[in-house]
Amino acid sequence: MKKNKGKISLKLMSLLQINRSENIKEIAGSSTVDEETVKIKDTIVFRKKSIIIKEKYNFDNKIETVLELLKGNESKVIISGYEFADFQLVNDKLYFSRINKENLMENSVEEFVFNFEEEKLDHVEEINEEKIKKAIIDAINIKFAESYSIYRIRSAKLKRVYSRDDKCCIWFTVKLTDKNIRKENKITGVYCDDFSYVAEKDILNVSYDVDNTLNIIESKNEYEEEIIRIREGNIISKGSINLKNVMPKNKIELNKNFIIVSESIYVVNYLNGKILKYTIKGNKYEVEKNYNFAAEDFDKDIDGNIWAVKSFCGENIVYKLEGDQFIHQYRVNSDRCLLSVYDDKNIIISDRSEYSLISKNSIIA
Asked: Who's near 270: CB < 8 A, 6+ residues apart?
């Protein structure tokens, strides 16, 4: 195949309707990047616009990240650099961060927000660390009946997690010296204006659900995690889930192999790619349904619906979970198998070198 040196090259592909008569669901297009120097890391869809996150491998072995805005059949770079992470799509805004290598202070992080409607990139105001650290110390002292002062904090990693109602909490990891200054204690938790949660062990993930319920995934032991769900400052459920023989330790990828939908959790078995539905009963999550449905990738859309893409005879079939069944939605004649879904009308399927856009009732040529 002829290389295009990283430039976007759109080509028409076919998208076939499956078991649907009420709407014609058509293709958008696909793009290829230079396989030798540029790789697609991820894609993020917002209605008719998308962010393509690419990794560019330079001659000095440094990996530069490039964020491109794709609209119609045109694209433009919105920012490039190093160490971009923590992408969060909230309403019409995409939040993400970058470690500032030019600042010698430990864990110095810049935060950005891209407004899809205005197509504008801005810096996010820095966290008031002194105020947050004081609140964190107060919460830790209450939790463990200690008397730490703010001066015991040797290092602190503070990460904002955003909700759809324009609020945010702080997911924190702090290292404290003990009273004899002989060792460090690592403590993780979540701080919000109306509550705080200090974990017994490590917190693996913090996110808001579509109804602004805060979900905290906390490591419990070698095979178990605990899911704490908080709404309006109150814990509404707390249950453990045993992932032995289902998922390796510390391999949770939220909304990919571990999808929280209200009181249910959908987990992809790493041994066979099949998805299991867990429902909380008392203080434990138990298997309610084994779908006997394997797929290459899963995703959760903006409304909390679960989607999957599955290879079949050289094509990819896109499914949506409706009720208790995965229903065919699209068939694409490509072998790409990474899924990014905004809603029923706006989907991207990609791999490390190409992507295909699915947009209902539109064709990008």
From this structure: 246, 247, 248, 251, 257
